[in-house]
Amino acid sequence: MTVSAATLEDLIVRREGAAGRITVNRPKALNSLTLDMVHAFTRALAGWATDDAVNVVVIDGAGTRGLCAGGDIRALLESGSRDDGMAETFWSDEYKLNAAIGSYPKPIVAFMDGIVMGGGVGISAHASCRVVTEKTMLAMPEVGIGLLPDVGGTWLLSRAPGELGTYLALTGSRIGGADAIHAGLADYFVQSERLSELAKALTGSEGADVEAIVKSFASDPGPAPLAEKAAAIDVMFGHDTVEQILETARTSGDDWAVKTAAEVEAKSPTSVKVTLAALRGARALDSLEDCLNVEFRIIARMFHAPDFREGVRAAVIDKDQSPRWQPPTLSEVSEASVSAHFAPLGPRELGLIPA
């Protein structure tokens, strides 16, 4: 086994046979990403792209709890307090990494075992071969902390069947492996206990069909629970305003729809309105890169808004789960304020170009 010089304590980068392997290694922090980890991740992919000895890249997480719960939110919040620019650099470089994964010239197999949220989706759901397990718990919960489903989330969710992506984005709901495959966020289901065996098979994959190897380990994930709710989801979330979505739920006579509406109403009013607009806009965009460019415009503004600080306080710091959003109601979030999130950033534009 050859260990890359890019290895950090928090990101284990090495080559095993024909596989380049990246393990996110912050289990005590649910493998949350830091800027240094993003940079090491990027360097590893760049080096292996032209290394003839590497046939496949395998991404997984250390510990037993999951692949990655997202970016290090506390560090990003502290960066905002210091106004040192680190958070903006993190998002910019993270999005470039997401794009690199999406356009990588070699197969990337991502093990989406356990918790996969936010930035964890960004380093896995754009891979060419995405593996879930019976332990997978996937979510894009950003509207609950005053942000939007970024890291290419608008690209992925806007292309889910029907309005399933809209539902996942506006509620931040957690889903299992079968639903992840149904939503187009994953490809294959493999029992968690077989992942180490699969990884070993991939290390010996020189000249082999990587997807065929993964398929040989795959099994039936069972029915996708949300597939049974498809009709109700499409009716409720098939509107272009959040107000219409909630009104449809309230008048539906469906207890599930009413409960779902309450979940949306608990989120940042600004976030849910901007997120819905971003999802609708993403349907007309042609590439992951285009969506990331728009997401960066939005995140650069949301990061400095009160709802991000308040959302992190309520969910991560004080954990009282009682955020005080500004503004507190949907009616106070104007169309003009939503549109302002999408305005160009001038010299600060992300400027990704589709591969």
Automatic annotation (TrEMBL):
Question: Could you state one GO cellular component term attached to this entry?
Answer: cytosol
- Keyword Lipid biosynthesis applies: no
Catalytic activities: 3-hydroxy-2-methylpropanoyl-CoA + H2O = 3-hydroxy-2-methylpropanoate + CoA + H(+)
**Per its UniProt record, what SUPFAM superfamilies does this chain match?**
ClpP/crotonase
Which Pfam families has this protein been placed in? ECH_2
Family matches, as InterPro entries: ClpP/crotonase-like_dom_sf (IPR029045), ECH_dom (IPR045004), HIBYL-CoA-H (IPR032259)
Molecular functions (GO terms): 3-hydroxyisobutyryl-CoA hydrolase activity
What EC identifiers does the entry list? 3.1.2.4
List, for all copies, the residue spans of the domain called Enoyl-CoA hydratase/isomerase: 20-342
Q: Which Gene3D superfamilies match?
A: 2-enoyl-CoA Hydratase, Chain A, domain 1
Q: Which GO terms describe its biological process?
A: L-valine catabolic process
Keyword Hydrolase, does the record have it? yes
User: Which UniProt keywords are present, listed alphabetically?
Assistant: Hydrolase
The protein's name in its UniProt record: 3-hydroxyisobutyryl-CoA hydrolase
Can you name the source organism?
Skermanella aerolata
Q: What is the lineage of its organism?
A: Bacteria, Pseudomonadati, Pseudomonadota, Alphaproteobacteria, Rhodospirillales
